[in-house]
Amino acid sequence: LGTADVVTTVVEEIRDIFAEAKRTNKKAPFIVCDPVMVATTGAELMERGTQDVMVRDLFPLCDIVTPNLKEAEKLAGFPIKSPKDVARAAAVIRETGKCKNVLIKGGHSNSAYMQDYLLQDDGEVTWLTTPKVDTANTHGTGCTLSSALAAVSAGGTGTTPGHSLNRNANPNLASHVVLAKAYVHQGIRAGAQIGKGPGPVGQTYWPQEHQSFPWATPTAHEGAEGRYGPFPEVGSPGIQLLPVVPNAEWVDKLGKIITEEKMTSAVHVQIRPKGLTREQLEMEIKKACDLSRKHGIKLWVNDHWDLAIKHKAFGLHVGQEDLFKVDGKGCQTEVDLQEVHKAGLRLGVSTHNYHELAKGLAIRPSYVSLGPIYPTQSKAVKYHPQTLEGIKCWRSLTPPSMPLVAIGGISMEDAEDIIRNGAEGIAVIGAVVGAKDVGAALRAWDKKWLK
Fold first, then answer.
1. At a CB cut-off of 8 Å and minimum separation 6, what does 235 contact?
2. Which one, out of 57, 85, 311, 395, has a CA that is 20 to 30 A from the CA of 50?
């Protein structure tokens, strides 16, 4: 895109492609524009006047524009010195270019971290952070990221090429960007010195290194010096079987069986009460916490962080809807993560796609869960089954010291495959609370880990 003529030719070609897609009733391709305007060395790569044509004619056709910091400064028209400047520049670029989404790449900053800023067309913002790699071999990072983003967007957010984790009607752009950034960071770690000057970034494989997987936060500070956690480790015994129960009565029932049978796998239980008033809810959680201590089991409270703290539960489990939320004025959370951490509670986080995994890992929880692994009857979910391939992928992208818990549609016959593919724990609902003989079901599950 070095000259206005080249930009115009590209614009005409894209319009022809869009027209053909409309005529044949096919989906238009996902368009990524990497405005290669300024080299890493600072050299200008675009003729005078070309920028105006690109912003006016090309940007409105693009699904996402991916400038680096120097290019963002030129496009926005002011210097970028802070995270606030990055956010303002992204808004200006999206407004003047009438493009849907903007990703400003921050790898050239002087920070100890590489932080990219994603502004989506619905107003959601995400900072993606990875530790900076001490290397000069970063030639081609911008081109690699935009190419990886285009490739992932064309193929879906899969755990391996061709395997889609999320086939809903609205592809998760943030997951695409997370994968692309992970791929680039993985390539930077594999970069090699070839010839003179900075060597090229490595072209490697589908992201599978936890050291290269970014964490996603609403602010730059929370992605760097202000990260939450780490939350306490699960400890020993770890999570193996995790029955999810609806009330304190079930905590008591399972607790009696677990202690009488001296089971080693089913020592963690999660309570998920539904349809109660606030007063009833507190009574139920207090009773469950008291019973868990009586039976010597470890109780995880679902969602209700304040009651989990108040009644001294072992841990708290939260879904993505209870984590980071942004209202345009800054970060808000449904869960007071600082209070949960201060109270010493363990924390588990649900994940369903790459963006959610990146958000979960940002707060350094005690464990992450992935689901649904198979179709489930317990509740309607918008995500398609993750399968064993999903477990393999999540295990490789999650720090080895952090347990991975699989959930969703898992039967006793599936357990060995689930464990063999990398999950330390299995959360079950119907397989225990729906069993005709609960004691027999728990004993049978317990044997899966004794093997």
1. none
2. 85
Of the pLDDT bands very low, low, confident and very high (cuts 50, 70, 90), residue 97 is very high
* Residue range 188-228, pLDDT digits in tens: 999 988 888 888 999 999 999 999 999 999 999 999 988 88
Among 294, 259, 287, 258, CA closest to 271: 287
Is residue 36 classed as helix, strand or coil in its secondary structure?
Answer: coil
> For the purposes of burial, counting CB atoms within 10 Å of the CB of 49, is it exposed (0-12), middle (13-18) or buried (19 or more)?
exposed
- In eight-state DSSP terms, residue 156 is -
With a cut of 50, say whether residue 164 has pLDDT above it: no
- The secondary element (H helix, E strand) that includes residue 302 is strand 298-302
Radius of gyration of the chain (CA): 24
Q: Is 32 exposed, middle or buried (0-12, 13-18, 19+ CB in 10 A)?
A: buried
Structure tokens of 413? Answer: 């016959």
Q: Rounded to the nearest 5°, which phi and psi values hold at 245?
A: -120, 160
Angle (CA) 283-285-288 rounded to 5° is: 105
Calculate ∠ Cα 379-381-383, nearest 5°: 150
Cis status of the peptide bond prior to 218, with omega within 30 of 0? no
Average pLDDT, the chain: 89
CA dihedral (366, 402, 430, 318) positive or negative: positive
Phi, psi (deg, nearest 5) at residue 296: 70, 30
